[in-house]
Design a protein that fits this description.
three-stranded mixed β-sheet, single chain, 371 residues
């Protein structure tokens, strides 16, 4: 997300600044408010809200607005007495940090970005606004270990994510505590090397067309590599041949859980007694033109994902499989679940028992299956 911001924001800032300080301030406020509103309302796609720049830009724009205010005011912090700046900013900033979910009430399922995100953002902005002469900034945040941590914060942020993600992939789940600690320590070491060998030389180097050209070429190469990895769904050579073949069969050529892959003629064979609002959630697949099915595969999308493999495994045998089921439901009579997916109003009503009669009809099992 930060990379997108750093690439696009200079163009936006340059255009707004040419219109004058007032227009720049209004444009930045409007952009921050729009980004914040988008982030708060992106409940249907929390992963997208976390990674996309337009839903997170307001957090960086808060610092931009603070910098703009300081440049245009060119006065004491918070446009008031230093004591007032130090006292109010420290108390409010510290209160926001204490109340921030990252320290006080972080829990699984907390929406981020969301309303809770404003607390640490506001706290950081207030601490910065207090100025370098405020006591907490001059005494506490100027402590050399904390200054070094601040210098390493961005490369540390860049390194810790892939190392922890790799550890999770290797372990097939949450890694052991020792491995997580090792990944964090390795991230700190790599962050120190990145800051010392990459960031400092680039910051101290003289600007030249050759250096800019090389950096642009490296940026372009990195972008092309990422695009290529996305286009071919990763690097195929990373998987053994057998695993790559299975993944290609399940994820590329068939995708049996998609609505367009279902067979209306298959559903017409047994016409399950479900309410109309549940029709789009039904699964039914069989071998077109094949003999009547004598094996029933019951369940939701987890079950239907097994269908292509079963068809292949049973080829040439007297057994012919047909899948029937409904999305987000267990293969048990009278049970409806939606896992971690956002429920529709209809499914939510079923979960609350407001449609108990319809639930028994919609969550059918082998008793409602007629071969």
């Amino acid at each position: 997300m930060e990379e997108h911001f750093y690439l696009l924001f200079p163009l936006l800032a340059w255009g707004l600044w040419r219109l004058g300080p007032g227009a720049a301030r209004a444009g930045l406020l409007l952009a921050a408010a729009a980004s914040m509103a988008l982030g708060m309302r992106a409940g249907a796609d929390p992963a997208g809200a976390f990674f996309w720049p337009h839903t997170r830009a307001w957090e960086l724009l808060a610092g931009t607005l603070l910098a703009h205010w300081q440049v245009t005011r060119a006065s004491a912090p918070l446009a008031g007495a230093p004591a007032l700046a130090a006292g109010n900013s420290w108390r409010l900033g510290w209160a926001c940090w204490r109340l921030a979910p990252g320290f006080a009430c972080l829990r699984p399922g907390l929406r981020w970005p969301g309303a809770a995100t404003a607390l640490p953002v506001a706290g950081a902005a207030l601490l910065i606004a207090a100025g370098s002469q405020a006591w907490p900034n001059r005494r506490l945040l100027a402590w050399r270990p904390l200054v070094l941590l601040g210098k390493l914060s961005y490369p540390l942020y860049l390194w810790h994510w892939p190392l922890l993600a790799l550890a999770r992939l290797v372990e097939g789940g949450t890694p052991p505590l020792a491995l997580r600690i090792g990944a964090v320590l390795a991230s700190a070491l790599l962050a120190l090397l990145t800051w010392r060998l990459v960031e400092l030389p680039l910051r101290r180097a003289r600007a030249s067309r050759g250096a800019v050209a090389w950096l642009c070429a490296l940026l372009l190469a990195t972008g092309l590599a990422g695009w290529q990895a996305w286009r071919q769904d990763g690097w195929p050579a990373r998987l053994p041949a057998a695993a790559a073949s299975l993944q290609a069969q399940q994820d590329t050529t068939d995708r049996p859980w998609l609505p367009e892959r279902q067979q209306p003629g298959c559903q017409a064979q047994f016409n399950p007694p479900v309410p109309e609002f549940m029709r789009p959630y039904l699964f039914c697949r069989s071998e077109p033109g094949g003999p009547p099915a004598n094996v029933a595969l019951l369940g939701d999308s987890h079950a239907v994902s097994l269908y292509p493999g079963l068809v292949q495994a049973l080829a040439g045998t007297p057994w012919h499989v047909q899948h029937v089921g409904a999305s987000l439901t267990a293969p048990l009579w009278g049970i409806a679940t939606w896992g971690g997916s956002p429920p529709t109003p209809e499914l939510y009503a079923i979960k609350l028992g407001r449609r108990a009669g319809e639930c028994a009809a919609s969550c059918w099992s082998a008793r409602s299956y007629a071969p």
